[in-house]
Structures are given as structure tokens and as C-alpha cells.
């Protein structure tokens, strides 16, 4: 009881301090939803039932006098609310932007246009949103406009970037583009990405999530890495994207994401895998391949734990076939329990077939050949 009371007193003190620190500007449409503290930080929260515009919000910020330091923006839509958000969401001293459950209009309205606003966003999240898209406009952009660093790279200052359950909603059009025109637009984008004259440097990016997508392009990882660097990225979540195979950029992760420590590829449709394990001294790399369609593992899997960089693989929930090829997995799982006891739960991978071994732990089976 004493502990609970102390916690209650501390919580009340924090709440009162925050309330005293932040004040509401009730003299404007946007100000009444933005708390401001003595340092000039503004925490702005909007629930959008109809429409909301970044252009108007940006103008309001530009007209503010006095010290405007960090601006944090949270947008949550209800009942089909629409937000007008030109990519990549730049505004005066905007440090955080989270958008949830919204239809995004105007996404391409400032595409390939140099912005007067610098990169400032550190924390960006798009969750359960649909981007309203004019397919003919998108094709025209891909065919005609040169790539501009401002929109191609987006916010290079991001430390935390989430794209979760992001989809595209195509607006009605009088003329549906032919398959040939669609292919030309796609090929043009691929070619321009290969010859991109600038580098996107995401030197601050630590966490990247791209999950729940049904429209991953076959050149997604090419455009992501051809002219972009991620020197400090530690966590990459690419789960639940209907991925059937592991792209080269992830198999050879060390060349593209040298600081990576956690790679989530769970809940995809992956059938096989292979990862490099460089002979350098660094922390281990954890890779989740849980709940995919993997039946067998590479013959050299035990070596993933023998180098200077241990690669810890999560294979739980896969339909493992316990034949001679499962010996490598058995050896790996036993070694995993010894080398990384904190991850020993990963060693409980089960046989899925043949039927006589179904439900048995792979590390406990004998004479499978």
C-alpha cells in the first residue's frame, strides 16, 4: 500500500508539473489543439472526423512569433477522415508526425519539388492509412519528372520510421492506363533509381518498420539500397508482407546494414534462407523467420553460431520436414541452447512431417536418415 501511495503521489506531481508547463493557445483553429511549454515546444493532437490540411497547419506555424522549438504532431482520423499531407511532410521545426487510421490526400502534390523547409523529423509513423492515388498522375511523374533528392530521400533526419498497414486507394479515372503504359512507368522508375545522381544518407535511422503491405514491388530493395546508406540501423521489421524469398540485400545484410542487430521477417511466405555471417567482432544478429513456409535449412547452419558474429535464427512455426537434412538444424538448435541460453526458447522447433515425427522437437529426434 505504501508503494502504491508513493507512486500515486509521484504520478500526481508529474501530471501537475506537465499541466503547468504546457499551455493551450485558444486563439486559433490549430492553437487550441496544441500545448505549448516555456521552451517553445508544441505538442499538437488532432482527431479528424472530416478534413485536415498540413498546408494550413504549416502556414499557422510559419506565422507564429516568438520561440518555436520542437513541434510534435499526432493525427488520428475517425469515420473516414481525410488529411491533406504532401510527402515528405515537412513543416517548421516538425520533429514528430504520427498519422493513424486516415485517408491521405495530396501525397504526391509536392513530389519532385524542392522544399523550402529543411529535414527536421525524427519520429515518423503511418499506421493503418490509405494513400489516395491518381494512377495516371503517378505514371506521368514516373515517366516525365526527374528524381529530386527532397522527395526521393524524404526525411533523412528520421531516427524512427514506421509504415504499418499502409495501402493505396486509387481514385476513379476516366481513362484506365493500359498494361503497356503501366509497365513503361514502372521501368522508368527502375531506370531512374539505378542512375540516381545523389545519395540518401539515413545516418540517424535506428528503427525501420515496413509491415502489413500487400504491394511490395519486385524492385523494392533495389530502390531502397542502390543509392542509400543506413550506417546505424539496428532494427528492421519487414514482417507480414507476403514475401516469398529473401532479397539479396538481406541475405548479405552486412554490406547494406552494417549495424543491424534485429531483423524481423516473420509471418511471410519464405521457403528457404541463407545469411552471411561475417568474421568480425560485433554483437549477434537476431533474425526472426517464424511462421513462414520453411521445410529445411542450409547445410552450413551450425556455422552461423561459430563465427565472431553469431546469427540467431527463430524458426518457430515453420513446417520443418525431419529427414536427413534436419540434422544440421538439430545441431544448430543444440548449439544455440549452449551459446545463447537467453534465447533457448528458439530451440523448441517442432517437426511438421513426416507424420510419425510430427510434434516432436527437432533437437530430440534420432536416426532420421
Note the main attributes of this structure.
Leucine-rich repeat, LRR (right-handed beta-alpha superhelix), 2 domains, 15-stranded mixed sheet, two-stranded parallel sheet, 23% strand, disordered N terminus
List the helices and strands and how they pair.
Elements: H1 2-21, E1 23-24, E2 34-36, E3 42-48, E4 51-53, H2 54-63, E5 71-77, E6 82-84, E7 94-100, E8 103-105, E9 123-133, H3 135-144, H4 149-152, E10 160-170, H5 179-194, E11 200-201, E12 207-211, H6 220-225, E13 228-229, E14 235-237, H7 248-251, H8 253-256, E15 262-264, E16 285-288, E17 311-314, E18 320-321, H9 326-339, E19 351-353
Parallel strand pairs: 3-5, 4-6, 5-7, 6-8, 7-9, 8-9, 9-10, 10-12, 11-13, 12-14, 14-15, 15-16, 16-17, 18-19
Antiparallel strand pairs: 1-2, 2-3
Helix pairs in contact: 3-5
The whole-angstrom Rg is: 25 Å
Given helix and strand content, the structural type is alpha/beta
Shape: elongated
Q: What share of the residues lie within helices?
A: 10-25%
Low-confidence stretches: 1-27
H and E order: HEEEEHEEEEEHHEHEEHEEHHEEEEHE
Strand content: 15-25%
Give the integer mean of the pLDDT values: 88
Tally the structural domains.
2
Intertermini distance: 61 Å
The DSSP helix count reads: 9
The count of DSSP E runs of length 2 or more, i.e. the number of strands, is: 19
Q: What composes the largest sheet?
A: 15 strands, mixed
Structural summary, described in words:
With 369 residues, the chain is of the alpha/beta class. It has 2 domains: 23-233, no CATH class; 257-369, Alpha-Beta Horseshoe (Leucine-rich repeat, LRR (right-handed beta-alpha superhelix)), CATH 3.80.10. It has helices at 2-21, 54-63, 135-144, 149-152, 179-194, 220-225, 248-251, 253-256, 326-339; strands spanning 23-24, 34-36, 42-48, 51-53, 71-77, 82-84, 94-100, 103-105, 123-133, 160-170, 200-201, 207-211, 228-229, 235-237, 262-264, 285-288, 311-314, 320-321, 351-353. The longest helix is centred in the N-terminal third of the chain and has 20 residues, at 2-21. It is elongated. The relative contact order is 0.06. The model is unreliable at 1-27 (pLDDT under 50).
Amino acid at each position: 500500500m505504501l508503494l502504491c501511495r508513493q507512486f500515486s503521489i509521484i504520478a500526481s506531481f508529474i501530471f501537475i508539473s506537465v499541466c503547468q508547463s504546457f499551455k493551450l493557445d485558444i486563439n486559433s483553429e490549430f492553437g487550441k489543439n496544441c500545448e505549448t511549454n516555456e521552451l517553445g515546444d508544441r505538442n499538437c493532437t488532432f482527431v479528424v472526423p472530416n478534413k485536415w490540411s498540413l498546408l494550413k497547419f504549416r502556414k499557422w506555424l510559419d506565422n507564429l512569433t516568438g520561440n518555436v522549438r520542437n513541434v510534435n504532431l499526432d493525427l488520428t482520423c475517425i469515420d473516414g477522415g481525410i488529411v491533406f499531407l504532401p510527402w515528405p511532410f515537412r513543416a517548421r521545426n516538425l520533429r514528430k508526425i504520427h498519422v493513424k487510421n486516415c485517408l491521405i490526400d495530396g501525397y504526391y502534390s509536392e513530389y519532385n519539388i524542392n522544399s523550402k523547409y529543411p529535414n527536421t523529423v525524427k519520429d515518423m509513423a503511418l499506421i493503418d492509412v490509405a494513400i489516395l492515388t491518381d494512377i495516371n498522375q503517378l505514371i506521368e511523374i514516373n515517366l516525365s519528372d526527374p528524381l529530386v533528392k527532397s522527395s526521393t530521400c524524404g526525411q533523412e533526419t528520421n531516427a524512427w520510421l514506421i509504415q504499418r498497414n499502409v495501402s493505396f486507394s486509387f481514385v476513379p479515372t476516366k481513362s484506365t492506363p493500359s498494361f503497356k503504359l503501366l509497365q513503361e512507368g514502372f521501368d522508368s522508375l527502375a531506370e531512374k533509381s539505378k542512375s540516381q545522381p545523389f545519395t540518401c544518407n539515413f545516418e540517424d535511422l535506428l528503427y525501420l518498420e515496413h509491415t502489413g503491405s500487400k504491394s511490395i514491388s519486385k524492385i523494392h530493395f533495389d530502390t531502397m539500397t542502390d543509392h542509400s546508406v543506413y550506417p546505424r540501423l539496428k532494427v528492421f521489421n519487414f514482417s507480414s508482407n507476403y514475401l516469398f524469398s529473401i532479397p539479396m540485400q538481406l541475405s548479405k545484410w552486412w554490406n547494406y546494414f552494417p549495424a543491424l542487430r534485429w531483423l524481423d521477417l516473420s509471418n511471410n511466405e519464405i521457403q528457404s534462407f541463407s545469411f552471411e555471417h561475417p568474421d568480425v567482432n560485433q554483437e549477434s544478429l537476431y533474425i526472426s523467420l517464424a511462421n513462414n513456409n520453411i521445410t529445411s535449412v542450409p547445410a552450413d547452419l551450425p556455422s552461423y553460431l561459430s563465427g565472431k558474429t553469431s546469427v540467431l535464427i527463430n524458426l518457430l512455426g515453420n513446417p520443418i520436414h525431419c529427414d536427413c537434412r534436419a540434422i544440421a538444424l538439430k545441431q544448430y538448435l543444440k548449439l544455440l541452447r549452449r551459446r545463447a541460453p537467453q534465447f533457448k526458447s528458439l530451440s523448441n522447433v517442432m517437426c511438421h512431417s513426416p507424420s510419425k515425427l510430427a510434434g516432436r522437437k527437432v533437437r530430440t529426434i534420432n536416426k532420421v536418415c
